[in-house]
Design a protein that fits this description.
Blueprint: H1 3-14, H2 16-20, H3 35-44, H4 48-61, H5 66-78, H6 82-95, H7 100-114, H8 119-139, H9 144-156, H10 165-176, H11 180-193, H12 197-210, H13 215-227, H14 231-244, H15 249-262, H16 266-277, H17 288-302, H18 305-318, H19 323-329
Helix pairs in contact: 1-8, 1-9, 3-4, 4-5, 5-6, 5-7, 6-7, 7-8, 8-9, 9-10, 9-11, 10-11, 11-12, 12-13, 13-14, 14-15, 15-16, 15-17, 16-17, 17-18, 18-19
Length: about 325
Amino acid sequence: MNRLNFVLSMVLFSLLLPLASAAETLTEPAKANDPLEQALELRSDGDLEAAAAALRKLIAADAGHVEAKWQLGRTLYMQDQMDEAVEWMRKVAKAHPNVSKVQQILGEVVGTKAMNASIFSKMSLAKETRVAFQKAVELDPTNMAACDSLLSYYLQAPAIAGGGVDKAKALADQMAKHDPVESTVAWARIHLHNDDSKKAIEAIDQGLAENPGHRGLMLQKGLLHYDREEYDKATVVYEALLEADADDLDALYQVGRNAAVSGRNLKRGAECLRLYLEHDEDRSLPPHAWAEYRLGSILDHSGDKAGARAAYQRALKLDPDHEEAKKALKGR
């Protein structure tokens, strides 16, 4: 693979993140008489085929239901039907060219399709991805999901494909006019891109000074400390979140992960992972298989080999392809 092909592949891989966390939009309970909400609840429950069928039925009854159309595109993506998702979203964008969310989802599915394209197709698909994100932001500068995707593109794409750090900085400044917190996160990402995690944390700290206790910023700060292998500092951040909400699943998992990786705070880490596993699995959070694997690592650190083996086995039962659990069990 030549350098340009590799770089474009990495750019387009980074654009998978918004769609990979699509379940974040599905947490509200369905309204009894709202077909769209019912379809989204089916999707949230993992019944993608039924969700797609319900969305198609809604669109057939109401051809002007724009949200149902882009939600169908997102659902097709989640079903790994990429060709159909791209074809569908291109049609939707042609019919509704001035809807920001439509352009955003078009960019996301086209970017995903480009991952497995040839270098020649990848270039044209990358351009289509960028143009869609740019139009989404132009149509609605408050659409932070579109801003985030465009920022990822600018940071990762080579100049020949329309990328550039200066463009990312200009976008981060624009975001500040509409959502200062998201702008703070954008600047942290820019600093990380420049291999300056210290400045990234400083940016998040400045955001927290202006927005004390902001959950999203605190989660970002914890992850930054984790990436710097400052596990104790990360745990302090997550424990503060748990003081505010003892059922904060993100924080519970991260305390456990820190313990598993660092070999410290083992008792508390195991406690948090067990609490995490008591809740139903949420598609927007780490799978239970990973929680079981992390628990096994903690028990290994603690010398409980039998308990660790059982946790790894549970991880494999939940996900038979979990390579880390397989490696942990090998030779036992």
